């Protein structure tokens, strides 16, 4: 048995996030790497009907958001999906694997952003080795994360405004160009089936575009650092998702109108540069490159915030070793978890290309979302004393079907994504075995869970 003696008391996390900061957190986490780096990859999957996968991805994410809102209202603590899984099923191994999966998706997403930073946007100015750029990139994020959540979410506000300005620039240029007679409306209904059916083309593109809509779930891991999370979460999350989803669909429509799908696909992560060139040929691309740099920084910052807080929360629930719950006495941030996730992100950045990393992130989260939608149904019998948001009765069921389907090969998802996910999950199994047989079996304290 592991040592169950009382650990030194840790200071509580600082509640620095109000409703406006939370709204910017949600918007900033959704906007960013997905639309800035993967537009061309989605176009390669579906063709001219580029807007459709983003719309469908938004619908699937919105359904799952209702489940997250009910659960964070009932249990306003850090750890998110992992905590909900443990409360619903009480299986330590499953909880550990969900924790590891969500953490892996966060650092994989951050690695995607780091790769976009070095290979796409920074490349407009200077070419440097990706590993060196990624290491400096992740280390800088770790320092911001360590300094404090207040500084991190305030930095998020600035970065969100910058990345939003880039997408509004694309929208403004696109609308002006269309009003001047540019664009081909017929492309909006073109679906490139390739060697598959139209259904598989749409589902495969949606599976990849889903990466652009993830991020809203990161916010629940910040619950212990929010002011009155039960009250502020529903409005902030739903409004933030609505704003991000609308922007995505509009950008996708304009991109398809102005640039043929094959050109977007050939440009890959440079697709939005091609849209800007088509709509405003004289516009300096360096300006948009700077905006893109800030956009991917913001995505990575929030993902690293999420991953570190998730490990901190589950360490406090005794699912992970208590060292991950160590809080710096003066900065009041979980420095061990920050260091651990940062090292993994630096390693991952050299492992795959942007499309594969983004698709694998979406795959991992779709599997987690399926479990969360099941958990909200299981936990309906667990009543709490305070009032909280309750999801419509039908949304978890539909979320289970849609998320589960998109996480299978039947959706047309490339098998390479399952291979990468399998390797990551195998690492999780090894860590579980080490924790169980070497460190000693960790017992979850039922009294702590009842209080959470």
- Our estimate of the beta-strand percent is under 5%
What is the rounded distance between the termini? 24 Å
The assigned structural class equals mainly alpha
Number of helices: 17
Give the ordered list of helices and strands.
Answer: HHHHHHHHHHHHHHHHH
Tell me the total number of β-strands: 0
- The poorly predicted ranges are 1-7, 442-452
Largest sheet: none
CA radius of gyration is 21 Å
Average the pLDDT over all residues and give the rounded result: 82
Question: What general outline do the C-alpha atoms trace?
Answer: globular
Helix content: 55-70%
Identify the notable features of this structure and list them briefly.
452 residues; mainly alpha; 17 helices; 70% helix; disordered N terminus
Structural notes for this entry:
The protein is mainly α. It is built from 17 helices and no strands.
């Amino acid at each position: 048995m592991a040592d169950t003696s009382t650990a030194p008391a840790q200071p509580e996390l600082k509640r620095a996030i109000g409703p406006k900061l939370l709204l910017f957190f949600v918007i900033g986490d959704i906007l960013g790497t997905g639309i800035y780096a993967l537009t061309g990859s989605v176009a390669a999957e579906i063709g001219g009907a580029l807007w459709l996968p983003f719309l469908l991805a938004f619908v699937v994410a919105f359904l799952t958001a209702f489940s997250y809102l009910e659960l964070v209202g009932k249990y306003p603590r850090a750890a998110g999906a992992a905590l909900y899984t443990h409360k619903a099923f009480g299986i330590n191994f499953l909880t550990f694997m969900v924790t590891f999966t969500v953490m892996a998706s966060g650092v994989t997403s951050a690695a995607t952003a780091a790769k976009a930073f070095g290979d796409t946007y920074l490349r407009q100015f200077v070419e440097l080795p990706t590993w060196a750029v990624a290491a400096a990139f992740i280390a800088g994020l770790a320092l911001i994360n360590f300094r404090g959540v207040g500084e991190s979410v305030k930095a998020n506000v600035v970065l969100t405004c910058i990345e939003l300005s880039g997408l509004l620039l694309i929208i403004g240029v696109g609308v002006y160009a269309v009003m001047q007679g540019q664009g081909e409306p017929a492309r909006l209904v073109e679906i490139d089936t390739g060697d598959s059916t139209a259904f598989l083309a749409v589902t495969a593109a949606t599976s990849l575009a889903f990466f652009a809509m993830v991020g809203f779930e990161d916010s629940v891991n910040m619950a212990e650092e929010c002011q009155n999370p039960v009250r502020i979460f529903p409005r902030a999350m739903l409004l933030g998702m609505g704003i991000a989803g609308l922007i995505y669909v509009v950008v996708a429509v304009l991109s398809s109108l102005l640039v043929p799908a094959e050109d977007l696909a050939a440009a890959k992560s440079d697709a939005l540069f091609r849209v800007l060139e088509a709509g405003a040929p004289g516009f300096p691309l360096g300006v948009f490159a700077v905006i893109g740099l800030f956009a991917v920084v913001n995505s990575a910052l929030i993902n690293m915030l999420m991953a570190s807080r998730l490990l901190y929360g589950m360490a406090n629930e005794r699912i992970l070793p208590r060292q991950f719950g160590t809080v710096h006495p003066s900065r009041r941030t979980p420095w061990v978890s920050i260091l651990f996730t940062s090292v993994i992100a630096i390693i991952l950045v050299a492992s795959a290309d942007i499309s594969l990393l983004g698709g694998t992130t979406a795959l991992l989260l779709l599997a987690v979302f399926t479990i969360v939608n099941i958990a909200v149904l299981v936990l309906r019998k667990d009543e709490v004393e305070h009032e909280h948001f309750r999801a419509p009765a039908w949304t978890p069921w539909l979320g289970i079907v849609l998320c589960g389907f998109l996480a299978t090969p039947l959706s047309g998802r490339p098998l390479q994504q399952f291979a990468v996910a399998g390797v990551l999950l195998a690492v999780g199994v090894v860590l579980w075995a080490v924790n169980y047989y070497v460190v000693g079996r960790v017992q979850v304290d039922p009294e702590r869970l009842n209080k959470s």
